[in-house]
Amino acid sequence: MLSLQNGRAQPVGARAQTDGSSTTMGDHTMQTKHSDQAVGRTRPWNRGKLLGPKPPFKLKEIWAIRIRLRNADRIRDLALFNLAIDSKSYAVVIS
Q1: Predicted structure pTM score
Q2: Residue 38 covered by a domain
Q3: What single-letter DSSP state applies at residue 20?
């Protein structure tokens, strides 16, 4: 008789295994397949990238972003950008 445990059919009385090893039922042992197959090593996505804090925007870059947002009629994005820049500069003045 089979029961459904962990999405797989298991013999009644068998213990559910999550590690892919063997299940013992009485004198019989069932071997299950390992899902851990050799996976080739892939290159990390951030290899060669700068880590840590990035340098702050220069005043020229801030104005370039503001002009591009204004010319694209992205008023909401411009307001959020200005808020972020003002908040950052306010935090620097306080500290």
Answers
A1: 0.44
A2: no
A3: S
Contact 31, 14 (CB under 8 A): no
d(CA 3, CA 10): 5
- In-domain check, residue 43: no
The verdict on residue 71 lying in a domain is: yes
Residues 1, 12 contacting (CB under 8 angstroms)? yes
Q: Look at residue 44 and tell me if it is in a domain.
A: no
Q: What is the distance between the alpha carbons of residues 3 and 13, in angstroms, rounded to a whole number?
A: 9
The pLDDT of residue 69 = 97
Tell me 32's DSSP state: -
Rounded Cα–Cα distance for residues 62 and 20 (Å): 55
Q: What pLDDT is attached to residue 80? A: 96
